[in-house]
Amino acid sequence: MDKLNNKIRGIIGNCSEAIWSVADIAYSDYKEVYTKAIVIAQSYNCFIINEAYDEEQYHQIMSVAKITINEKISRLSRLFSQYRIKNYIPAVTQSDESELVAPFSLKYAAVQAGLGWIGKNDVLVTKEFGPRVRLAAILLDYPLACGSPIGKSLCGPCRACVAACPWGLITGVNWELTTKRAELLDYQMCNKKRSEYVKHKSRKHTCGYCLLACPWGLNKR
Known about the structure:
Layout: H1 2-12, E1 18-24, E2 36-43, H2 55-82, E3 87-88, H3 106-113, E4 117-118, E5 124-125, E6 133-140, H4 160-164, H5 181-184, H6 187-195, H7 198-201, H8 209-213
Antiparallel strand pairs: 1-2, 2-6, 3-6, 4-5
Helix pairs in contact: 1-2
């Protein structure tokens, strides 16, 4: 197992660019086939703040992180297949535009793996990089040691993301494990506002004001 863990670390990279952990997914719809999920939080390759915000630049930063983490997940899948370990890469995209729910919640898996907590803006916040990360996961049927779940927000009284939202959609509620998404923000309106960009750019607005305003991870600049 030590040899396999070293190979996993070699693929994911050092903690200055990405963090990872393992979640027990007994809570999920995949529990009959897979027992664990390796969850990776890939940091952005450069740093911008709201004062210098440019949607196209931010979209490119997100795109680079997406390409980087997808390559790592693909390499992990090939590694596990070589070891004859059953694995599966869950879809990142949402199943439909009505409920806006993905088949496998990367955020919840990241919380279960101990990578971070859910911020007031309903995104994962890590101590290392704040919310400036791209998430991905691979499901396994293999006895890897799991991280310790996080069940409470560390955002405290901070309202940076609340103030940064251009449409005032974030309520300011501090997340706990029992908190519903709708208690944190009007996610349907958030999606509607971002979708207005489709007719101009053939994609949703990447936005990011609430993420870039977060003080967590600023020491990584």
